[in-house]
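>> received
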Amino acid sequence: MASDQESLFFNDNEAFTIPPTGTPMTAVSYNYDGTQIAFSNQPGKIQVVSSYDGSLKHQIEQTKTNYPVTGIRFHPSNEKMVLSTHRDGYIFFTNASTGENKCTTRHLGSNLLAMNMDVYGETFAIACADGSLRVYDFESFQRTKALVKMITRSATTQVCYIYDIVFYPDDSNIILAAGWNEKVLFWDIRSGNPERSIIGPHIRGQGLDIYNDTIVTASAKDKRQIEFWDFGTAKKITDINIEQTPGHICSGTCLKVASNGLNAVAGTNGSNLGVAVEMQNQKIFGQSKSLDHPVSSVGVSPFGSSFLVGTDNGEALCYMIRAIADFT
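>> returned
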């Protein structure tokens, strides 16, 4: 995180913009050195652009599906390789430079709602519309575990729409899953069960992330939209109010934390903003201009130096952030 001698400076001028497509921005991901951004604002298509000026580097278009992309992740050990999931169950591991799929599989039986990868690039997980999680091994590209909540003697799912999932960075056996029932479940792959939960976050999008032992959530409510939780105790640490704009109720839609824990970005509905949050002091230090449509997906550089805000209409704006010395 930023030191006590540094403060964060938000540049109000967009670094670049992505024109609207008329279809939602459904996924955003920076690569691990922060130089490229992959996003999808058209069903079945992924664009990879420069994080500095938005110039197109690669375009991935699948022939097997034209369903919306529900997740994008660059692989940490080979950043030419991009993992993507589609709502109709397709999962691709693609060379972005050539467009060739190294691996392809498909989950049948329910739609895919969310995807995430562990920090080592060894495992990834998908969240399914039946409320279950499926865990995959990267080397074999085969499913290794199905996580289904057990109630009494019958197997049931999380019995809710799963909006987002994230691996605990210190232990890839732990997956956090945010669902419709205002809970974040802590799934343990080893036992196959949710061991505990956070109760309270009203997550209705890609609104769950974690840095070290701090869980951050974006809730679809008009107060305390951004909340910080302790991983060890599952208790709330603090929260942040995003101010309402005249005539609009502002609710949280999505959130992403920089890999180095410097800052986070959250998207909103109503005010239709992206807000930049300083993680160390849990305060907002900048915001995007107000957009014509709700923010549906966001991404932030691993170093916290820029973020991308995408809307329900496919439009996107990129903003730059700098850490500057504070001599006061």
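>> The mean pLDDT is 93.
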